[in-house]
Design goal:
Blueprint (H helix, E strand, L loop, with lengths): L14 H4 L7 H29 L15 H25 L4 H12 L4 H4 L1 H7 L2 H28 L6 H23 L3 H4 L6 H12 L4 H11 L5 H28 L3 H30 L9 H21 L4 H11 L4 H29 L9 H28 L4 H11 L3 H13 L5 H16 L1 H8 L1 H4 L33 H6 L2
Length: 513
């Protein structure tokens, strides 16, 4: 007999659970909404309107409810600056230029050069004094992190190839435009010297400004054009790295002399800078290499990020206390930071955020303080602008290009090298701002040097495309050779037969191993 199936016991559901949801009419729903939601909302709004309109006319804060406070203005200004930088960068990319060109132009457009001239009231409402001061702090932090990133790039460079050619081209890239710029600045010193009133410092500063190459902008142009692995591209990166380091030291020395330090102050600050460089490049670099993890598993990422930002701030403070510009400290800390492992990965992220989010505030501050419409475009100003543009272009293209050609490089790659080094971009804007704040140049010369920096950077990509250099100067990518697993004690009897090559003669096959 087949046993009868036994029913498994089931738990009874409580009656309350079965009756928890019951159908209701639409009228009851609207009644609940009106009594518990709409009516209280109307009461709240009515009480607020009655209190606002019924208060005394001279009550504190009356009539200002619709206005933004300082915090609201800051966030509005920050949104406008970032949106303008994003739009300018996108337009520059569509025109075949680096994004930084569009961001610089957007910062200038928000200042008195464009928006301040067309709608001064809107500029005053969008960017009041407290908001501008807050954004100035963000711009200084972004500049320090940017210089830290430049130091990281310099630390990661490896000098390969012909050392003699690299050294000579680097010196030519620095000294030829420097000499031409200093000579051209001699007749301009009386009319364009800044508040410091030091004509010698003015002449040296203009010459140094002509010798600048924007290392980050150059790296971006090389990547966009596919020239990073080419011979002129690799040499241009190394030359720009060495030239930027030398230019920053020269700028620091010129500012020290202009501030009344004299020879004694220059020697003292030079010794302080040397001691700071030794500290950053030896004990601090070794300590960071031991303390920071070599892996990129993400453990301790928060602590490493805080250490990075705090270290940049502390290094900037140290060099500023020594009488050297604070950005030199950020550059030295970037040189000391490890170039491998988790520290390098986090450094790339932090500097990427700084370039994207914080540097637009520097462009805005630079544009707010620079009024290109204030330039009186008479014959003198036009001649000064054209002369400095010609000196900057010829000095950077002919100087290192001629040196590279004389030391063995072909003529066309040497010309490409000079055109690459002619890009100045953001680095020169930072140097111009330092010189203006130190009183080395006046507002007119700042505007002229800004135009020179923009034009020389904008012309780089079109000139290279006219030469057709991307396809013809790329180095061939090496084909990876498969690695065979060879036993430690191979058996000659089991060795495979060598591949036959019908195009190889017997003598060649026997003599090649």
């Amino acid at each position: 007999m087949t046993p009868e199936p036994t029913a498994e016991p089931t738990a009874e559901r409580p009656a309350a659970a079965a009756d928890s949801t019951r159908p209701v009419s639409r009228r009851r729903v609207w009644t609940a909404a009106g009594v518990t939601v709409i009516l209280p909302a109307l009461v709240i709004c009515g009480a607020a309107v009655w209190a606002w309109g019924g208060g005394p006319a001279d009550a504190p804060g009356s009539g200002t409810v619709h206005r933004l406070d300082a915090t609201g203005h800051f966030f509005l200004a920050a949104a406008v600056v970032l949106a303008a930088a994003l739009a300018g960068g996108a337009c520059a990319q569509r025109l075949g230029q680096p994004r930084v060109i569009g961001e610089i132009c957007a910062g200038l457009a928000l200042g008195p050069s464009l928006l301040g001239s067309l709608a001064p009231d809107a500029t005053g409402w969008l960017f009041p004094g407290p908001s501008v001061r807050l954004m100035e702090g963000l711009s200084q932090l972004g500049l320090a992190l940017f210089m830290f990133g430049v130091g990281q790039e310099l630390a990661g460079m490896r000098l390969r190839g012909t050392m003699g050619r690299t050294a000579l081209v680097s010196l030519a890239s620095l000294l030829v435009p420097f000499g031409l710029g200093a000579a051209a600045a001699l007749p301009m010193a009386g009319a364009f010297t800044g508040t410091a009133g030091n004509e010698t410092a003015f002449v040296l500063f203009v010459g140094c400004a002509m010798s600048i190459t924007a290392f980050p902008v150059l790296a971006r142009i090389l990547a966009d054009l596919g020239l990073t692995r080419s011979e002129p591209g690799r040499l241009a990166l190394v030359v720009a790295a060495i030239g930027d380091g030398g230019s920053w030291l020269v700028v620091a020395a010129i500012v020290t002399c202009a501030q009344g330090g004299g020879v004694h102050g220059l020697v003292v600050n030079g010794l302080g800078a040397a001691l700071a460089a030794v500290f950053f490049l030896w004990p601090l670099r070794r300590w960071l290499a031991r303390r920071l993890p070599d892996t990129e598993d993400g453990r301790g990422a928060v602590g490493v990020t805080v250490l990075l930002v705090a270290g940049v701030a502390a290094a900037s403070t140290l060099t500023a206390a020594l009488g050297i510009h604070q950005l030199i400290g950020a550059l030295l800390f970037g040189l000391a930071w490890p170039v491998r492992g988790q520290g390098a990965a986090l450094a790339d992220r932090v500097t990427g955020i700084a370039k994207t989010v914080l540097l637009p505030f520097f462009f805005f501050g630079f544009g707010l303080a620079t009024d290109l419409t204030a330039l009186h475009w008479d014959a003198t100003t036009a001649a000064v602008c054209a002369g400095l543009l010609l000196v900057a272009t010829v000095g950077k293209i002919a100087g290192p290009g001629l040196c590279a050609w004389l030391t063995g490089m072909d003529r066309r790659p040497a010309l490409i090298l000079g055109m690459l080094l002619n890009a100045r971009g953001l680095t020169e804007l930072v140097v111009i701002q330092i010189g203006f704040q130190a009183g080395l140049v006046d507002d007119g010369m700042r505007g002229v040097l800004t135009l020179v920096a923009l034009v020389t950077t904008v012309m780089t990509s079109p000139l290279l495309r006219l030469l057709g250099c991307p396809p013809s100067h790329r180095l061939p990518v090496p084909v990876p050779v498969p690695v065979m697993d060879i036993p430690e004690n191979p058996d000659p009897s089991k060795a495979p037969d060598p591949p036959r090559n019908t195009n190889m003669t017997a003598s060649t096959a026997g003599g090649t191993r």
